[in-house]
Amino acid sequence: MSFSIEGKVALVTGANRGIGKAIVEAFIAQGASKVYLAVRNPESTVALAQQYGDKVVTLTLDAGDAASIKQAATQAQDVDIVVNNAGVLEVADPLADNAEAALAHEMNINVYGLMRVAQAFAPILAEKEQAAFVQLNSVASIKNFTPFTTYSASKAAAYSITQGLRDKFLPLGIQVLSVHPGPIKTDMADKAGFEESDPASSVADGIITALASGDFHVFPDSMAKEVMAAYQSFADAVINAPAAE
């Protein structure tokens, strides 16, 4: 299965900054006919709207609010590709006083939010001749990073959900891509204390290439590529193996 961005209508959650903004810019550069900017605060996309005009449409979408996701889906019936980029990170190790609250928040957005978005847009994507669903996971979905244990746990859960979505979407003709960046130069990376990181454009470019190749995984940046070098054989033998009947 292969997916080309050219001429397609996309929806990107968390499109106003960081990786989401880079994806919007890359998709438009690759010939997307329209990109829905799905964000909690519509005012945060004013600059993008001024830059791209009728190439972009802002929608209100909060990954923690199922009603807002369903409403966005009713407004984006023409969408061909959904990129679920919105996510949160809390600094919490397993013994931290805030660990339980942090995990609850991260699960609500990073995992339940993914499920809400997938459920809302599945019927729309299933009607398209060519469709794709992209989930922003992380290298932390494979390897726990102790200061961010709760975030790592939520991303591991999201990665598992993504695998289930791949198996459910395949018969519907919907390509699924699981994206696993390492530290990327974003506000989230700054919060996590990563001083050296790759640009957000590396993730956007990796997504476009992986969709065209029909891949399930993409490890787009320098640190992620190192992880993938060690993980590849397991992924090929286990994760990418045909689903059990």
From TrEMBL:
Signal sequence segment: none
GO molecular function, one term: oxidoreductase activity
Boundaries of every Ketoreductase domain copy: 8-187
Annotated SUPFAM superfamilies: NAD(P)-binding Rossmann-fold domains
Pfam families: adh_short
PROSITE patterns, A to Z: ADH_SHORT
Gene3D superfamilies membership: NAD(P)-binding Rossmann-like Domain
Keyword line: Oxidoreductase
Keyword GTP-binding annotated: no
Family indicated by similarity: Belongs to the short-chain dehydrogenases/reductases (SDR) family.
PANTHER family xref list: NADPH-DEPENDENT 1-ACYLDIHYDROXYACETONE PHOSPHATE REDUCTASE
Name recorded for this polypeptide: Ketoreductase domain-containing protein
Protein's organism: Marinagarivorans cellulosilyticus
